[in-house]
Amino acid sequence: DSGVTQTPKHLITATGQRVTLRCSPRSGDLSVYWYQQSLDQGLQFLIQYYNGEERAKGNILERFSAQQFPDLHSELNLSSLELGDSALYFCASSVALDYYGELFFGEGSRLTVL
Amino acid sequence: GQNIDQPTEMTATEGAIVQINCTYQTSGFNGLFWYQQHAGEAPTFLSYNVLDGLEEKGRFSSFLSRSKGYSYLLLKELQMKDSASYLCAVRGDSNYQLIWGAGTKLIIKP
Questions:
Q1: CB contact under 8 A, A43 and B43
Q2: Eight-state DSSP code of residue B80
Q3: Cα separation of A73 and A61, whole Å?
Q4: What is the pLDDT of residue B28?
Q5: B46 CB contacts (<8 Å, ≥6 apart)?
Q6: Three-state secondary structure call for residue B95
């Protein structure tokens, strides 16, 4: 158990819909990262938050948005869903912005768009 | 550009030794990570190298040569449970972000 909690674990929805994925980082971790992993693909970095502020953006679509709340949990919002958005979405956390150690990953949210 | 290369797939025999290579070209270098990921599960941290040389941790070892932009993960006494994808990631200069390789799928045969 990494200490990072993601909900829901599985989500099935239809094209055009909107979903919200939630992540609670490890206790004490201030930085949260979101990654997308499509079937048999590598991890694609979406966005990073540190202590409530956006710090880095990767290949995140305009239909996607995220935020980190004062209690440090984070939400990833995916809208106008397309079939190609079906993927595993991972949240990871680390202690600090300039921390050189490893990231700790949640178990992921598997999104299926039909 | 920034790039990390790993073999797509490797096959090895239970009880044997396998070496998974990773080469990288990045803007700056602040450490290299290896993660293990079983299908459909979260990546889990295996090792971290920031200085040249070999880091040993049980059956797993990781080597780094910064001058060559090269690392390898060595798995000894392979077990069936080692069947997984192994991800190489480099922390560059930009916002301390990790740059991820596509992963090497390791298949262990009896």
A1: yes
A2: G
A3: 21
A4: 86
A5: B33, B34, B35, B36, B57, B60, B62, B73, B86
A6: helix
Does the beta-carbon distance from B91 to A108 stay under 8 Å? no
Cross-strand bridge partners of residue A87: A111
Q: What is the pLDDT of residue A95?
A: 82
Contact A67, A55 (CB under 8 A): no
Q: Which residues contact B51 (CB under 8 A, 6 or more apart)?
A: B64, B66
Give pLDDT tens digits for A28-57: 899 999 999 998 788 999 999 999 999 889
Eight-class DSSP state of A83: G
φ/ψ (deg, to 5) at A6: -125, 140
Q: How many residues does chain A have?
A: 114
pLDDT digits (tens, 9 = 90+) for B31-76: 999 999 999 899 999 999 999 999 999 999 999 999 999 999 999 9
Is residue B5 pLDDT above 80, yes or no?
A: yes
* A71 DSSP β-pair partners: none
Q: Is B47 an 8 Å CB contact of chain A?
A: no
Letter for the amino acid at A84? Answer: G
- Which residue is listed with tokens 């991800």? B87
> One-letter amino acid identity for A57?
K
Would you state the pLDDT for residue B32? 94
| 8 Å CB contact of B43 and A105 | yes
Site of tokens 């090497």: B104
Residue of B47, B57, B95, B105 to mutate when probing chain A, most A C-beta within 10 A = B95
| Mean pLDDT calculated for residue range B6-16 | 97
- Joined together, the tokens standing for residue A86 give 């079906």
User: What secondary structure letter does DSSP report for A79?
Assistant: -
Distant-in-sequence, close-in-space partners of A1: CB < 8 Å, separation ≥ 6:
none
